[in-house]
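Entry type: protein chain
Record version: 2
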Amino acid sequence: MTIGPPGAEVLRGGPVKALIVTALLAVFMLPLLRAVGSRALSTLSTLSTLSTLSTLSTLSTLSTLSTLSTLSTLSTLSMASETYASGTHCAAFVTCPNDGVAKELARAIVERKLAACVNIVPAITSVYEWQGKIEEDNEVLLMIKTRSSKVPALAQYVRSNHPYEVAEVISLPIDQGNPPYLKWIGEVVPE
């Protein structure tokens, strides 16, 4: 198998070498693919503008791709085809006194489209100060994946339906993650 344009210095080898070259291209093109974005990828037909590949002496003369499907494959391998703005989604946490309350809240939160998913983590121990005393309780933790914009509505719902006088509702922004999963959260939870 020969990789490269006619008349240029080429890489020779079999399917294993082609796979290695494709993998190397995927690794080195990842930053560029993220910067360019998936829409612009469909218009790329050459690699001549990718001077960053010149550091690889065996790849520096590679100037064109034989088909755009190879570039599409590289995009898929790099997962750069999905874009995500850091902090668009968050993981919220709510503690509950028992499994029954946790399941009831979790189901209602998902049914009301306040979250895409709620994980119920049983048997946690919480140590905290309440009314001047150190307390220790067994609780159940809800890990809630939702849009950051839904946290105020989520907090209001929990305050209205939680047995605690002061219910814990906190959230942390999701900086990055599996693009298809983050996309799914956005599809399930409307803005």
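Comment: The radius of gyration is 25 Å.
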